[in-house]
Amino acid sequence: MMKEAKLTTAVFFDWDVTLVDTFPGIHKAHNHVRGHYGLPLWSEAEYREVMKYSSREIYPKIYGEKSEEAMKILYEFIEENHIAELKVMPHARELLEQLRSKGVTLGVVSNKIMGMCSIIMS
């Protein structure tokens, strides 16, 4: 005898690479900081290696005593530019609309400062 399936009432998504691709914008932001300090810009491949670590971990190793200042420059750039740099993942909008039409509560869990889900739904 099969049990009746229960309907999901809520779905929480991670922000990055689930709903949006933030990689190009974050890569650009880190290169902005590197350019500010006269360092060579990271290629996409180089940045993919570095992004294994959080900025809080890696910035002291790269910028030393200027790491706090570098973080401030990074976050100011992100704040000013993140909307233009966000790329909605393929089918994210359709998935969210389908779930919403079924009355499912939607949420986003992220440690990023750029949690603007309204972009996808607008």
Report on this model:
This protein is mainly alpha-helical and 122 residues long. Helices cover 52% and strands 11% of the residues. The chain has six helices and four strands; from the N terminus they run ββααααβαβα. It has helices at residues 23-36, 44-50, 55-63, 67-85, 92-101, 118-121, and strands at residues 10-14, 20-21, 87-88, 105-109. The strands form two sheets. The chain has a two-stranded parallel sheet with strand order 1-4. The chain has a two-stranded antiparallel ribbon with strand order 2-3. Helix 1 (23-36) packs antiparallel against helix 4 and helix 3 crosses helix 4. The longest helix has 19 residues, at 67-85. The termini are far apart.
Q: State which percent range the strand residues make up.
A: 5-15%
* Rg: 18 Å
Main sheet characteristics: 2 strands, parallel
Q: Which stretches of 5+ consecutive residues score pLDDT under 50?
A: 113-122
DSSP strand tally: 4
Mean pLDDT: 85
Number of helices: 6
The strands making up the biggest β-sheet line up spatially as: 1-4
Order of helices and strands: EEHHHHEHEH
The helix fraction, in percent, is 40-55%
Coarse shape: elongated
Distance between the termini: 44 Å
The helix/strand class is mainly alpha
Provide a quick synopsis of the model:
The chain has 122 residues and is mainly alpha-helical. Helix content is 52%, strand content 11%.
How are the elements arranged and paired?
Elements: E1 10-14, E2 20-21, H1 23-36, H2 44-50, H3 55-63, H4 67-85, E3 87-88, H5 92-101, E4 105-109, H6 118-121
Parallel strand pairs: 1-4
Antiparallel strand pairs: 2-3
Helix pairs in contact: 1-4, 3-4
